[in-house]
């Protein structure tokens, strides 16, 4: 019966001879046999039957020696396993369970590793990561070529969800208004500048971004407004605004015009230097941008006393350290100068309705507003100049002395980008276009017109002949694009430079808001003549109006600015002509006033 059990259980080797135990085939079979039948092993966990133990006491000694050899080999691989006790399944414990009391290790006999217990040998790298105490010299840091095999429960590579979430960028909703009263809410990041927001609004409004768009800080309860500098942070500026204040999106062609024509902005009578200057345009700007120079703007201004309604005319001097007034005439001695305002923590605004709201003596008022002031008008430093040129000089000098090179960088960066893209955007004329010549086909054979004057007169004659043919077609009832009642009288209403039925005062206000630069214009309906139009143009910081009258020639209606000497079939042709030629105007048409709906 016992021999029959030996044949059935290869693991029961207690009755075999010693030579059979050390046979390699027997060892291989014992390693491959699953350890789920511990019936042939003798130990404290697996008590053997008494009949088998009684007849084979001498064989138990050999089996115990084999188990001890296996135990010694395992201990040589994990020499530090004494600090990490083994569980019943043969794995190392990861740590105490939550809420369990940690017991101090006691001097106890080492637990014997049983033959039937599978032992999971962890990789060296993972063993060192789990317990820093196991980083001993007996476990060398050998690179693991298969890291995905060590942790089946966790992926070998980092996934986006496994990384700790980083700090989210602060966002804020800002409402921006346009000139026609429409508005749009834009999500603004904390580091978004005024230039970035203008580019975004121009793109969403399908407008051309020509670096002349500006974000305007408007305070209707204080009657103040200013254009934000391109480098200013929108969120930071909004934090200093009251609830009644708002942002406006409009054109400002005069934002950096003083870099192009500095002599128009700084009259010689108002500029003084602490050192000798040659008076050139470049030297004038360098003195403002150089922090070591000491430029001064001087002149008389009307100054409103703080907390009072009265205004005084004082001699004022603007320096890098601030705005000063003289207590004794036009003296600039230090003992006669008194500080009016500091530019460091303040902003420069234009007065919208200074006469009506503050009783200003002129219409050319400006204000130095501390950033901490939200809606209190008592702490505002209000000033008035005698004319527009003087006010523009004071405001521009305040901007240059406060920001310095930042303004020049804001001006140069778009210019550099435009220069880099000019080679890609400039259309290239083809060979066929360059080889075009004027031809005369009036005779039996055509000839090339080599004289430029003759070529121009031929083109004019051909244009007049085309107009006469179109007029005859209109009489016969055929449709023509030059029909006076169909196209020429309404085509201009689709253009941005035409502003419809607005008053003279409204047109002047729009010109002033979008910058008093040479060539800024708009067209509107005439209030005195229903069939005429008015061209409003800015030149040398002054606004002039020119009436466009209709005239008839051969039954065709034309428009003219010079009493019929130069005629145009519609207003679009008139504007195109005066954008290329000055004609009877003081300057060419350069920039048109535009209003966009957000």
What can you see in these coordinates?
This protein has helices spanning 2-8, 18-21, 24-32, 50-55, 57-77, 124-130, 194-204, 234-238, 257-260, 262-265, 281-289, 354-358, 388-403, 405-425, 431-434, 452-475, 484-488, 504-513, 571-580, and strands spanning 171-177, 183-189, 213-219, 224-227, 246-251, 271-273, 295-304, 311-319, 322-326, 337-341, 346-351, 365-370, 381-384, 439-440, 447-448, 520-525, 533-539, 542-553, 556-560, 591-592. With 598 residues, it is an alpha+beta fold. Strands 1, 2, 3, 4, 5, 6, 7, 8, 9, 10, 11, 12 and 13 form a 13-stranded mixed β-sheet that branches. A 5-stranded mixed β-sheet has the order 19-18-17-16-20. β17 and β18 form a beta hairpin. The N and C termini lie far apart (101 Å).
Short summary:
By secondary structure, the chain is α+β, with helices and mostly antiparallel strands.
Strand content: 15-25%
Largest sheet: 13 strands, mixed
pLDDT < 50 runs, ≥5 residues: 1-61, 80-111, 134-139, 426-433, 471-485
In angstroms, what separates the terminal alpha carbons? 101 Å
Query: What's the pLDDT, averaged over the residues?
Result: 75
Provide a count of the helices.
19
Radius of gyration: 46 Å
Outline, from the CA principal axes? extended
SS-based structural class? alpha+beta
Give a count of the beta strands, DSSP E runs of length 2 or more: 20
Helix content: 25-40%
